[in-house]
Amino acid sequence: MLTNTVFVTLLALCSGVEFQIQNAANFDIWVGIQANPGHPQLRDGGFDLPAGHKVSVQAPEKWAGRFWGRTGCNANTKHCQTGDCGNKLKCNGAGGTPPATLVEITLKGDQGLDFYDVSLVDGFNIVASIKPSGGQGDGSQYSCKKDACSNHTVINQCPEELKVKNGQGTVIACNSACNAFNTDQYCCRGAYGTPDKCKSSTWPVNYPKFFKDRCPDAYSYAYDDHKSTFTCKAETYVIKFG
Ligand SMILES: *[C@@H]1O[C@H](CO)[C@@H](O)[C@H](O)[C@H]1NC(C)=O
């Protein structure tokens, strides 16, 4: 086990990628990290990131997974108002409860490229961005550029039926239509389980448009167009919440 840990650490240092995770908000965030199946959890899946702080997390080559920011966390109960992974600081494989803004990345995928995106498919709880530091791309629009969902109006202009409020009545997140209504159409499943059958423009209410208008470079629903995926080859990615 120890040998394994040492090996994984060495591998990360030699050929892996560094994620610099920043809290740009003026409040405390608990970061959540969930590896995709078959990949190791990084930093046991979560840690406390006080306002203005930055933490460096090493990932092995070919790692894939997601990052999110948990807000309104209680150090005693370990429960967070948004993005909660089951009343614990270290998510250890558990995902965050929607709604939560997700930063997703796959290292060294197709053609050795890293694929990254910001996803609002599970709703929005906090502004987030991911940006390669340096890195090699082909100069095109979605190559080695910053992908961000940084428009704070997503919270205060959130459609009433999608608003998520805390006990004090403050809006703390904006739900996805799938999570709010749980229908096959809004969730792109069953008879709506293919891209051509699940176009948000044909929905009773085009809720993804609300998110897309504010965060054009983020995924807004399961079959959103694929322009929202960025690619790069980089050794460092800066992920910012708040
Ligand atoms: C946020 O989105 C709204 C709606 O599209 C837009 O009017 C506003 O200018 C955006 N704000 C920022 C800071 O981008």
UniProtKB/TrEMBL annotation:
<keyword id="KW-1015">Disulfide bond</keyword>
<feature type="disulfide bond">
    <location>
        <begin position="73"/>
        <end position="80"/>
    </location>
</feature>
<feature type="signal peptide">
    <location>
        <begin position="1"/>
        <end position="16"/>
    </location>
</feature>
<feature type="disulfide bond">
    <location>
        <begin position="158"/>
        <end position="174"/>
    </location>
</feature>
<feature type="disulfide bond">
    <location>
        <begin position="178"/>
        <end position="187"/>
    </location>
</feature>
<feature type="disulfide bond">
    <location>
        <begin position="144"/>
        <end position="215"/>
    </location>
</feature>
<feature type="disulfide bond">
    <location>
        <begin position="85"/>
        <end position="91"/>
    </location>
</feature>
<feature type="disulfide bond">
    <location>
        <begin position="188"/>
        <end position="198"/>
    </location>
</feature>
<keyword id="KW-0732">Signal</keyword>
<protein>
    <recommendedName>
        <fullName>Thaumatin-like protein</fullName>
    </recommendedName>
</protein>
<dbReference type="Pfam" id="PF00314">
    <property type="entry name" value="Thaumatin"/>
</dbReference>
<dbReference type="InterPro" id="IPR001938">
    <property type="entry name" value="Thaumatin"/>
</dbReference>
<dbReference type="InterPro" id="IPR037176">
    <property type="entry name" value="Osmotin/thaumatin-like_sf"/>
</dbReference>
